[in-house]
Write a structure and sequence with these properties.
Layout lengths: L10 E4 L11 H9 L2 E4 L2 H10 L6 E3 L6 H12 L4 E4 L12 H9 L4 E4 L4 H9 L6 E3 L7 H11 L5 E6 L4 H12 L4 E6 L7 E6 H10 L8 E5 L5 H17 L5 H12 L3 H13 L2
Parallel strand pairs: 1-4, 1-5, 2-3, 2-4, 6-7
Antiparallel strand pairs: 7-10, 8-9, 8-10
Helix pairs in contact: 6-7, 7-8, 9-10, 9-11, 10-11
């Protein structure tokens, strides 16, 4: 645990496991044991974690619906020179979890805010999805109501970065249908379900296929979800793809799918595998 000057408190932002308890770091355990207080999103949930690791530090609740008095009390502890560890139910606090207001106010009071990094569903999903990772945008949980949800998706339809959402089991099917309608059924996406847990699933396909997959089995809708959507093609790529489709239509009149795709790949510079898949789609509509 980092040492602070005497009389100076510190707020530790501590990442906890998103499923597998083995993913907690030794540093996180040490900080939680040494802190004067742990502010937890759900004390009943977090007590199982602290009991498992023999952590006896007092737990108090701190969540999105906490009163300002609770936040004031935590800041009073910090101002008095005591250390507080902030944890969420799972993963890294503040990533679609409570804590922003507390951290902002602590920094205004010149209280040291110290991150203790670790598990995060966002980065775990991105690392394993097989989508571009050099640029991405995280949008948290989509709105509950369909109108607002579709409006958000429409604002992101032309986004060229990988787009990432969290979603709950109760809304995943509806959200995927709306994603399909707005982003297009052929847009590539990946569903990551129950990451690090027994039934961990990472499944990639078109949004059309994923929407059908999620509805095909009740088990597919259980757990917590991360949904990653491939970014939209750049405008010049859209024109190139349109021209590739035109050429494929012509060549498929005379040539097998594989040969037609190979020729168009040479002409346009587009990837042969993607053109082969597209040629199969076009050939199936003939």
């Amino acid at each position: 645990m980092a040492q602070q000057p005497a009389g100076t408190g510190a707020l530790y932002i501590v990442a906890t496991p998103i499923g597998n308890l083995g993913d907690i770091s030794q540093r996180a355990i040490d900080v939680l044991k040494a802190a004067d207080l742990i502010a937890a999103e759900d004390t009943r949930h977090s007590s199982r974690l602290t009991q498992h690791f023999g952590i006896t530090t007092r737990l108090v609740s701190y969540h999105d619906f906490s009163s300002s008095a609770r936040e004031d009390a935590i800041l009073t502890e910090l101002s008095a020179g005591r250390s507080v560890a902030l944890i969420s139910d799972a993963g890294t606090p503040l990533i679609s979890d409570p804590g922003y207001s507390l951290v902002a106010r602590a920094r205004l009071l010149k209280v040291p805010v110290i991150p203790i990094p670790g598990a995060c569903a966002l980065t775990a999903a991105l690392s394993a999805a097989g989508l571009p990772t050099d640029r991405f945008v995280f949008e948290g949980f989509p709105p509950h109501k369909q109108g607002a949800r579709k409006q958000l998706f429409e604002s992101l339809a032309a986004e060229q970065r990988t787009v990432i959402f969290y979603e709950s089991p109760h809304r995943i099917a509806d959200s995927l249908q709306d994603m399909r309608d707005v982003f297009g059924g052929q847009r590539l996406a990946v569903i990551c379900r129950e990451l690090t847990k027994t039934w961990e699933t990472i499944h990639g396909d078109s949004l059309e296929a994923l929407s059908l997959w999620i509805q095909a089995d009740d088990n597919n809708r259980r757990g917590e979800f991360v949904v990653l959507i491939h970014g939209a093609p750049a405008p010049d790529q859209i024109g190139l793809q349109t021209e590739a489709d035109r050429q494929l239509h012509i060549l498929l009149e005379e040539l097998p799918v594989k040969q037609a795709a190979a020729l168009v790949a040479k002409i346009t510079g587009l990837k042969k595998n993607a053109l082969y898949k597209r040629a199969l789609e076009l050939d199936g509509t003939r």
